[in-house]
Each structure stands twice: as C-alpha cells, then as structure tokens.
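FIELD: query
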Amino acid sequence: MAKSQQIGHRLLSLAVTLMTATRFLTREELRTKVYGYEDYAQGDAFARQLGRDIQDVESMGFTVTTGGSDPASGVVDGYRILAKDALLPPIELTPEEADLVGLASTVWGQPDIAAQVGRAVTKLKALDVEINPSALDYMRPRLMPTEPAFPVLHEACLRHHRVRFEYNGLTREVDPWKLLFRYRACYLVGEQTNGSQPGIRIFKLMRMESLPVESSITFPPPDPELVRAKAADLEPVEPTQSALLAVRTGAGQALRTQGEPVEGDAPPGFDLVAIHYANEHELLGRVLEAGADVLLLEPTDLQGVVVARLKALAKEGR
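FIELD: result
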C-alpha cells in the first residue's frame, strides 16, 4: 500500500475512533487500538505523531475536544470528537451538484476503507469502550444504487467504451454518456447505435434485462449540451391542468398534501380537493390506486375513463 494511502487510512481510523467513543480516550488507548499506530512504542515519538494526526483530522473539519478519561480524577488526558462538533449544517445543492455527489458517493464506499472502519469499531469494543454507531450515519453514502449494471456502466462512461445489453426485448448497443439519479432510481443517458431507429435514449437501470457488457469500441466525449438537453426529459413537467376530487374524510393524505381544499357540495363523507397535474396517465393511476376513497369529479372526460377502467377491472375479477 502506498504511503499516502496508509496515512489516509490511519487518519480515517483515528477520526472514526474519536467520533464513536462515548468517553475521552487516552493516548495509550489510541496507540493500541487505532489502525497505523501498532509500530509505535509509548513515548515522545508517538505523542508527537498523534499531535500531528489530530491537527490533520481538525484540518478535515472536525473539532477534537480534550477531557478526562476518568471524570473523578479531574485529569485532562483524553480526546474525543463530540457529535455536535461533527455534524454538518444543512446543505443545499443544485440538481447538477446533487448528481455529482450521488455519483461520487457510490465510488467512495471502497471495501478497504470500510474494513478500516469496521476494524476501528471492533477494537473499541475489545477495549470495553461504549461506542455510538449512529455517529457514523452521516458519513455513510446515502445514494448508493443497488442495480448490478451500475459498476459496468460507470466504468464504461469514464472510459468512453460502448456497451451492449438487453432492454425491452431488444439488444441495444449504446455509447454511455452519463449516469443520472432521479426519483430514487438510476438512469443511463446515451446514444443507441444499432437498431432501426438509432439515437439518443434514456435507459432505466432496473429495467435492463441483462448485465451490460463493455466492448473495446470507443467513442468521443459527448457534447455536454446534448447530454443536458436529454437529461431534461427526466425533470418533472410543470402542472398546467387541474382536477376536482372528492376524497373520503380521513383518507387520501398524499392527494390532500399535493392539492388544496375547496368549498362546494361534496358527497356525504367526502371532502373536495383541487389538484394540479401535468400528466393524465399519472393522475388516473393515482385515482385508481386510491380505490373507493377518491372520486374524480372533473374533468368529466377523465371521469369517464376512470369509470370504464373500474368496470373492466370488476369484469376481470369475476
């Protein structure tokens, strides 16, 4: 392992140890339990190294607090990172920044780093130190995709290599341009090069019917404007239409939250709710999913569609 990696792992292990401990840890406890300190003997050399490492941990944005490992003694001989000093303030990201953070978080979770974290926690337990595992929650990547296709596509995007996979019953050969995270799902934007209608497409990873296979065929980096324009297809459309619903009292909370109550004559046991929508199919799906708790009153043409579909479902259920 390179020296820079060893230093990084040691600092990570030290930070995790200080964050998860519920009391102040002495130099000797840190020397015997933190990854990377096993070659140091107790003494001035280790004290100097620990001091430098604590400065490096603080330069990463943490605040290391000193205090007594034994409160009864009154001696200041230990170190900790308090939870209040480790938590980040709320962060607001643009959609582009959120995409970047999401992609980076999937690459950050390397097995060797995860192993060092686990080792640090295990050593603390062996020391009979009470730990707080929840202190690590905010360090855990939040946007890790579970689709098996992601690693291959991520590598192919970086290397600009064409991939092949099955999608909707067809074999697709695609130049992968970019991976996007939208609505808790991962999408691939790329240019399909085969088939009767090649062109720029968006593929949902969970709908891929085979694992992508990376080929040796390369392609030039795509025009960022083309990628951005196609990615805009995944953005929500502004609602331009409105519907009037009768929602059973005490039910349909999701629709109530997205709509607004209105005055008028509602069927007994129902409340009137106006909701704005952009896609008729989405609205119909939500109304049908609610079953008898929601009645679509307006527009009347969609009301007829709902009635027809419910009759069809009733006929199928006989």
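FIELD: remark
The domain at 150-234 is CATH 2.30.30 (SH3 type barrels.).
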